[in-house]
Amino acid sequence: MSAPRVVLGVSGGIAAYKACELLRRLTESGHQVTVVPTAAALHFVGEATWAALSGRPAATETWESVHEVPHVRIGQNADLVVVAPATADLMAKAAHGMADDLLTNTLLTARCPVVFAPAMHTEMWEHPATQENVATLRRRGAIVLDPAVGRLTGKDTGKGRLPEPSEIFEACRRVLARGGLEQDLAGRHVVVSAGGTREPLDPVRFLGNRSSGKQGYALAATAVARGARVTLLSANVELPAPAGADVVRVSTALQLREAALKAAVDADVVVMAAAVADFRPAEYAGGKIKKVDGVDPAPVALVRNPDILAELSAQRQRGGQLVVGFAAETDDVLANGRAKLTRKGCDLLVVNEVGESRGFGLDTNAAVVLSADGTEVHIADGPKEDLADAVWDQVAARLP
Do residues 180 and 113 make contact, with C-beta atoms less than 8 angstroms apart? Predict the structure, then answer.
């Protein structure tokens, strides 16, 4: 089997130097990479660097090797085109079909998946013109990763930072793994919750659970690879944020509820994969609860947390919205799952058995997807991203 052919487009932003790391990861993992930098990009990183790292001449001019018709052939022959960094100018040209250099010509002739990794100042990213261009690209099936939040050029900080090269690489790997399948979530907004909530007892203790967030993060990453705009509600997760997901950090069940209801307003799909505490302490101790010799501490009174999944199901924020829940069970897995599906009122419920050696914290998972229409799909034990793709298969088949 021949090596996947990847075109790495580099536009003229200061983050161009980070594309060198992305190029290294692509070449070291066996991909055949052709770098197509814009003239502005070459002001940041020279042609010799791209050639040395890729082992191939960088393609910089429409008028070089004219007999090979580079402005057509490079895009035609690619299995994936990734533009990193993608500036506001480059995305504007792509959205409007302009072709004034080799990279924009390549984007017009490519019939493979295209990934844009934006990098720019916050004001440029948030400008209505940029947002309309991003929406246009996504609607046409391109994958536009959301930029990261962090230090920009100079002293500025905000949303607009290029996602880490390792995470862009993972997004590209997942897109290539789909083998050119349709981006069936393109133009959709999906909300995914991940991790486990923590309910404070005092300044040093909390009630929590063993959820690592790996399954939720896999759902977010695979949704990005399938073209979705992803809002990831992350509850106490210590994992690298998936490139392209807009991450909202929460801690408690009440914070997750507020974030979920807000994000669901314009969502096509809401997937509640986080492990949410059923109860929280009735009172928070302002000081550390200490041992007192000979005196037992007062029992901790608990109150019930809101049922976020049931609330989201009952108050659909838009017509046709799908709500997916997760149920971690230790016994009578399917019976408890069916009862929970009815009680919560969601469209799909992903039920998996958990315990000391399964589910939480592992890289693999098995589950059964129960549907409100009575069907059930069994997903064999395997990588969590495989289970995530299987869940999205069920979701995509039900989207209007």
Answer: yes
What per-residue confidence (pLDDT) applies to 28?
Answer: 95
Q: Give yes or no for a contact between 91 and 137, defined as CB atoms under 8 angstroms apart.
A: yes
What percent of the residues of the chain are helix, what percent strand, and what percent coil, each to the nearest 5?
Answer: 35, 30, 35
308 carries a ligand binding annotation: yes
Torsion of CA 154, 42, 241, 337, to 10 degrees: 150
Q: Give DSSP secondary structure letters for 370-386.
A: EETTS-EEEEEEEEHHH
Is 307 part of any known ligand binding site? yes
Q: Tell me, what amino acid is at 213?
A: G
What distances in angstroms separate CA 290 from CA 81, 208, 293, one per listed residue? Answer: 59, 20, 10
Token pair 């041992």: residue: 291
| Residues 40 and 11: beta-carbon distance below 8 Å | yes
The catalytic site residues sit at 209
Judge whether 309 is annotated as a binding position: yes
Question: Which bin fits 244, alpha (ψ -120 to 50), beta or left (φ > 0)?
Answer: left
Confidence of residue 239 (pLDDT cuts 50, 70, 90): very high
Strand pairing category for 114-118 and 32-37: unpaired
- Going along the chain, which residue ranges are E strands? 5-10, 32-37, 80-86, 114-118, 143-144, 148-151, 157-161, 189-195, 199-202, 205-207, 229-235, 245-250, 269-272, 279-281, 302-304, 322-329, 348-353, 364-371, 376-383
Does the annotation flag 344 for ligand binding? yes
Residues 321-349 have a mean pLDDT of 91
Residue type, 309: L
Q: Which amino acid type is present at position 396? A: A
Which domains are present in the chain? 5-177 (3.40.50.1950), 189-398 (3.40.50.10300)
pLDDT of residue 250: 97
Enter the pTM of the model: 0.85
What residues contact residue 52 under an 8 Å CB cut-off, 6+ apart? none
CA–CA separation, 386 vs 61, rounded Å? 41
Within a 10 A sphere around the Cβ of 85, how many other Cβ atoms? 29
Number of H helices, E strands in the chain: 13, 19
pLDDT band with cut points at 50, 70 and 90 for residue 183: confident
Task: Look at strands 189-195 and 269-272 and give their pairing.
Answer: parallel
For residue 29, report the phi and psi dihedrals to the nearest 5 degrees.
Answer: -95, 10
pLDDT band at 67 (very low <50, low <70, confident <90, very high): very low
